[in-house]
């Protein structure tokens, strides 16, 4: 009798419908980053480090002198490594010195009135390659999160309603909700993280005015939410 009672209780448990809701929103990036990539070399480690610091200071002063806001100028990283060169006579790598690699970034908004000036200063004064990086601002990311969640929930509800009607059952209370953080669908990688962005490489010999390239592709943000209902 106990076995029969247990089987009856299991067979009368409520069923569950589990549905994944998806959402997608496209946004035009508002943030722009000009990143100058430069390096210095020297046989002496200390001298290489000092030269790199002097180079950073020189670049910062160039922009500040020309009216670029100092708080926008950032040094992303600082790395010094040993350089070796293969010697065909010795048939092995030999020490050649040290090299410091330092990217300096100026992060602005698309409507910053001095973007053209930044472009001109880099192009005309710095013998370095650089990147123009378009990204979503923090305000855009916060704004889109709420909208993505709302759209994903609506999508899940719609799917669950259609399934329940087709199966001739009634949706009950929600049993669980699982939420996925928003992700950016980038040009080069369909699974890029949110803070990544589309990169447009530029050289110091570029002749185009910056205003002609400030039309980046929209960035598509996606998220998903899994909701389970009792039936």
Which CATH class of the largest domain is shown?
Alpha Beta
Helix content: 25-40%
Helix/sheet category = alpha+beta
Nearest-angstrom radius of gyration?
A: 28 Å
CATH topology of the largest domain: Alpha-Beta Plaits
Cα-to-Cα separation, first versus last residue:
28 Å
**The CATH superfamily title of the largest domain:** Protein of unknown function (DUF541), domain 2
**Parts with pLDDT < 50 across at least 5 consecutive residues:** 1-12, 187-206
Named at the architecture level, the CATH assignment of the largest domain is: 2-Layer Sandwich
Mean pLDDT: 80
Number-wise, the strands total 10
How would a crystallographer describe the biggest sheet? 6 strands, antiparallel
Count of alpha/pi helices: 4
Work out the strand percent.
35-45%
Topology as a string of helices (H) and strands (E): HEEHEEEHEHEEEE
Task: Tell me the number of structural domains.
Answer: 2
Shape: elongated
Pfam family, one: SIMPL
Protein name: DUF541 domain-containing protein
State the gist of this model.
The protein has helices at residues 2-11, 45-65, 115-125, 138-167; strands at residues 16-27, 31-42, 73-75, 79-87, 92-109, 129-135, 174-179, 183-185, 198-202, 219-230. It is of the alpha+beta class and 231 residues long.
Walk me through what this model shows:
- It holds the Pfam family SIMPL.
- This is DUF541 domain-containing protein.
- There is one protein chain.
- This protein is an alpha+beta fold.
- The protein has 2 domains: 15-28 and 139-198 and 209-230, Protein of unknown function (DUF541), domain 1 (Translation Initiation Factor IF3, 2-Layer Sandwich); 32-135, Protein of unknown function (DUF541), domain 2 (Alpha-Beta Plaits), CATH 3.30.70.2970.
- It has helices at 2-11, 45-65, 115-125, 138-167, and strands at residues 16-27, 31-42, 73-75, 79-87, 92-109, 129-135, 174-179, 183-185, 198-202, 219-230.
- Strands 2, 3, 4, 5, 6 and 9 form a 6-stranded antiparallel sheet that branches. Strands 1, 7, 8 and 10 form a 4-stranded antiparallel sheet that branches.
- Strand 4 and strand 5 (92-109) form a beta hairpin.
- It is elongated and about 80 Å long.
């Amino acid at each position: 009798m106990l076995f029969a009672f247990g089987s009856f209780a299991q067979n009368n448990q409520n069923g569950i419908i589990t549905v994944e809701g998806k959402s997608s929103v496209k946004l035009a990036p508002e943030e722009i980053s000009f990143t100058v990539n430069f390096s210095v070399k020297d046989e002496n480690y200390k001298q290489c480090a000092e030269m790199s610091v002097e180079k950073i200071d020189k670049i910062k002063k160039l922009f500040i002198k020309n009216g670029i806001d100092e708080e926008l100028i950032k040094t992303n990283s600082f790395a010094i490594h040993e350089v070796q060169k293969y010697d065909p006579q010795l048939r092995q790598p030999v020490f050649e010195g040290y090299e410091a690699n330092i990217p300096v970034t100026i992060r602005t908004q698309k409507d910053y009135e001095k973007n053209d000036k930044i472009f001109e200063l880099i192009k005309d004064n710095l013998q370095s390659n650089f990147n123009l990086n378009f990204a979503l601002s923090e305000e855009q990311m916060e704004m889109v999160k709420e909208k993505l969640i709302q759209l994903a929930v609506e999508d899940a509800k719609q799917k669950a309603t259609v399934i329940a009607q087709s199966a001739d059952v009634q949706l009950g209370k929600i049993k669980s909700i699982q939420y996925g953080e928003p992700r950016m669908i980038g040009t080069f990688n369909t699974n890029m993280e949110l803070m990544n962005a589309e990169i447009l490489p530029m050289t110091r010999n570029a002749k185009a005015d910056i205003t002609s390239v400030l039309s980046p592709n929209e960035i598509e943000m996606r998220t998903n939410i899994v909701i389970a209902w009792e039936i």
